[in-house]
Specification:
Elements lengths: L1 E6 L5 E10 L2 E4 L9 E6 L9 H7 E4 L6 E4 L1
Antiparallel strand pairs: 1-2, 1-4, 2-3, 5-6
């Protein structure tokens, strides 16, 4: 599952919105960045696909790397 994640500079996630694909269309609530938060599109580890977003916020943070942003355990 791919999601948009809004996060603070330290990687702490503050909001997640699921990206849903229907054929060629992508349906999503798009989170918008502001002065304190960045927004990225990331892949959720498969074993967490059925977990509530609140649990993802508690368990993961966003980390930037050479291959782009990823979710990593806190």
């Amino acid at each position: 599952m791919r999601v948009h994640a809004a996060y603070q500079k330290d990687g702490r996630i503050v909001a997640i919105a699921e990206i849903v694909e229907d054929g060629d269309e992508r349906l999503a609530v798009r989170l918008l960045p502001d002065d304190e938060h960045e927004v990225v599109e990331v892949e959720v580890p498969r074993e967490f696909d059925d977990k509530p977003f609140a649990e993802l916020v508690e368990r993961f943070r966003v980390r930037s790397g050479p291959e782009g942003p990823t979710l990593t355990p806190r």
